[in-house]
Design goal:
The protein is of the alpha/beta class. 37% of the residues lie in helices and 19% in strands.
């Protein structure tokens, strides 16, 4: 299935939060009828927001970071998968597991966290501290892909982090466009093992098949050759992590040498103000001095409480990063792409 850049607009209903339990956040909830509120109302909300520090409930829900290996067993699961393809402008085609089929086959999948059945049977997109929405490709991810296409961004020899990666499309794009290292991180281990790694493999598999054309007789069977070569490609260029951001940062800081990133992508990750301190810490400690964070977000996440203006205020109060508006999207809920770079006075 080949999808053009209008696809996200057609599927806007897929990009709203549903909840199975109340969320414990400090911001007041609104309703979707306020979707077209003007920016100044969001700014007023930011001014009235109390200190954005993690609540006790969130602190208790910290999930230890784990590094996951792309085993041949995991990769072989893609052989019978139903996949889709998104094509935007001049970007290389990106392949991913079909979301509907993924949900329908949830009972058959290995899920140590027991989130797959919960999300399907309860029709929920978010259970705070349990499941953080990684099984869906959210709207702002497509916005950021379109921005990259518009700007002609390439990633040759760059070290890239796809933070809160979900399906991993942003990191996969960086991989296809020459990044030397791409790290994928999501809160849930089930998301990483059942969705992210298979999606990365699907795209490496295509590249391996292209490179393998014209092989002489006597070569290993095409499928085995592709599986083996893709496995080595993943191991050489990619790493996969699950867990909360505080634990992830701690894990990365223990590595010797500690890797820092030239580019950090993150999409739809500032919906909960409780997470802002740990997210900011990841940016602060893991971004190279001349690196850039690309953040794609909605103005406000009704029913959850976060959004661009609250996060912008938080960043300004910390006085570490310069935050710059790159693109605004006014269709439906207002959406934005911004960049964060270290302030020159800090260097």
């Amino acid at each position: 299935m080949n999808l053009n850049c209008l696809l996200p607009r057609c599927l806007v209903m897929a990009f709203s939060f549903n909840f199975s339990i109340p969320l414990q956040t400090k911001a007041n909830c609104g309703d979707d009828s306020r979707a077209d509120n003007e920016k100044d109302e969001n700014v007023d909300a930011a001014k009235n927001q109390s200190k954005l520090e993690p609540s006790e409930s969130v602190c208790k829900a910290l999930k230890e970071a784990v590094e996951h290996q792309p085993t041949l067993d995991i990769l072989s699961q893609t052989e019978s998968s139903v996949t889709e393809t998104v094509s935007i402008g001049t970007l290389p085609s990106l392949h991913y597991l079909n979301e509907s089929v993924f949900e329908q086959t949830a009972p058959e999948r290995d899920d140590g966290e027991h989130i797959l059945l919960q999300t399907v049977t309860q029709n929920t997109d978010l259970i705070t501290g349990v499941y953080e929405g990684g099984l869906k490709i959210w709207e702002c991810t497509y916005d950021l892909l379109e921005y990259i296409d518009d700007e002609g961004e390439t990633f040759s020899r760059k070290r890239v982090l796809d933070l809160g990666c979900g399906a991993g499309l942003l990191g996969i794009l960086a991989l296809k466009r020459g990044a030397s290292k791409v790290h994928f991180q999501d809160y849930n281990s089930t998301v990483i093992e059942q969705l992210t790694i298979p999606n990365v493999f699907l795209n490496c598999e295509e590249d391996s098949e292209d490179e393998g054309e014209g092989k002489k007789d006597g070569s290993p069977p095409a499928k085995k050759r592709t599986l083996d070569s893709s496995h080595h490609s993943l191991s050489d260029h990619c790493s996969f992590f699950s867990g909360d951001w505080t634990s992830y940062l701690s894990l990365m800081q223990r590595k010797d040498p500690m890797l820092k990133y030239d580019i950090i992508f993150t999409s739809e990750t500032i919906y909960n103000t409780d997470y802002y301190p740990s997210l900011h810490n990841v940016f602060h400690k893991l971004l190279e001095e001349d690196g850039v964070v690309y953040l794609a977000t909605k103005s406000h996440y009704f029913g959850v409480g976060g959004g661009l203006y609250l996060f912008q205020r938080f960043v300004e109060d910390k006085d570490v990063f310069q935050i710059k508006s790159l693109k605004d999207i006014d269709q439906g809920l207002k959406r934005h792409i911004v960049s964060l770079t270290f302030k020159k006075s800090r260097l």
